Amino acid sequence: MEFDRRLCVAACSLVILFTSPWSTAARAQESGEAQVIRSIDAAVHARAEAVEGYLVVEHFSAFRNNDEEHPAAEMKVKAIYRKSTGKTDIVLSETGSEVLRKMVLHELLNNEKHIAEPANREAASITSANYEMKLRPGGVQRLDGRDCYVLDISPKHAASNMIDGTLWVDAKDGSVIQVQGVESKSVSVFTGPTQILRQYAIVNGFAMVAHSRAVANGKLSGRTVIKIDYQDYGVQVLPPHLPSK
């Protein structure tokens, strides 16, 4: 009888556990998280499939120490991206410190070009294949006038384009709004570990980088801030597939 009583108590405890408000909320959180992550993957896939190419003017500004009003080096670049071949950069102008331009700005350009190569793009995307993602509690939040979900992200492999930090995505379709954190691998030995902020805008229906800010504190080089503004996008989007007759 004592055994039966203990078994009954254990069974009742399990029922209480799995029907308690906490358990229900936890399961709802997990379900919502999976749905948000699927929407992120779908948005990235849709962009990769639809965007055939684009043109954009990138304005790089490098600042030293605590002066963010007077750039130590600047560079303006016309970037041409084609899905089939990757990215080509045409430097329109550059001024200021040759060391910063050569060791930082041109290194950033080379890194972007490497990431945009057809063989590397998929591994560089912000998807669940490349990141561990955890939805923050609190539901929908607001950022720049848009409803969004906020996720903690951690790269599954270290690379100069991978960020350990926070991701904001549109609550409607999972497109990226903003990402902020620490680069898992520095682009340049000159700058050291780098804090990254990237902000996105919708261009022709897809999320494109609008502004980027990087802050590094090297032991030898001190504090370096890089700002990149992306302007005058021209995005070539493939027409949607027509239904077969």
Oligomer: single chain
Mass-distribution shape: globular
Poorly predicted ranges (pLDDT <50, ≥5 residues)? 1-24
Order of helices and strands: HHEEEHHEEEEEEEE
Q: How many strand elements?
A: 11
Question: What is Rg?
Answer: 23 Å
What does the average pLDDT come to? 85
Keywords:
alpha+beta, globular, 245 residues, outer membrane lipoprotein receptor (LolB), chain A, 4 helices, single chain
Structural description of this entry:
- The chain has 245 residues and is an alpha+beta fold.
- The protein has one domain (44-237): outer membrane lipoprotein receptor (LolB), chain A, CATH 2.50.20.
- The chain has helices at 2-19, 21-50, 98-116, 121-124; strands at residues 51-64, 73-82, 86-96, 131-135, 141-143, 146-155, 163-170, 176-183, 194-203, 206-218, 222-237.
- Strands 1, 2, 3, 4, 5, 6, 7, 8, 9, 10 and 11 form an 11-stranded antiparallel sheet that branches.
- The longest helix is centred in the N-terminal third of the chain and has 30 residues, at 21-50.
Summarize this, please?
The protein is of the alpha+beta class and 245 residues long.
Write the layout of secondary structure elements.
Layout: H1 2-19, H2 21-50, E1 51-64, E2 73-82, E3 86-96, H3 98-116, H4 121-124, E4 131-135, E5 141-143, E6 146-155, E7 163-170, E8 176-183, E9 194-203, E10 206-218, E11 222-237
Antiparallel strand pairs: 1-2, 1-11, 2-3, 4-6, 5-6, 6-7, 7-8, 8-9, 9-10, 10-11
